[in-house]
Amino acid sequence: MNQRLEQNQLGEWKSNFNDPKDSSGFLLWQVTQAWQRMITRELNKINLTHTQFVLLTACKFLHLNEEVVTQKKLADFTKLNIMMVSDVVRTLETKGFMCRSKNPLDKREIILSPTEEGSIKVNMALPIVENVDDQFFSRIKGEQQSFNKILLSLLSLSTHVDD
Length: 163
What we know:
Layout: H1 7-10, H2 24-44, H3 50-64, H4 71-78, H5 82-94, E1 98-103, E2 106-114, H6 116-136, H7 144-157
């Protein structure tokens, strides 16, 4: 039995866009999905998820800049939900890539640092991700700085909210 709805049952199209291709949000979502699929495919080869890569790399970056890295600081820096950060950090700790310890000045805070193995993993993963980025963004090579400025502008409008 064909359950296809007749046009009059569907109602009218109520959108600012006649075509989804005209929606910046939908296009951004599609581009993000395509880019993440490429990253995920390559990082799977070294047994790392994209989120694990981002958090481990951000932790190493902040740590090398002599910052005390807490879960909150890492969540703020990466714009990820603190609960997701907590879950992924536990996984990274289990894998031996990250160390969690209590802050001696504030026992409520957890201080994060990459282990030697975690640092090696970042050094292995970073060229992989940068190579994917080079391939993916090669079509806008001459416009990448402008593109990044637009992205930063959009980021400045958003706020980080813990759900």
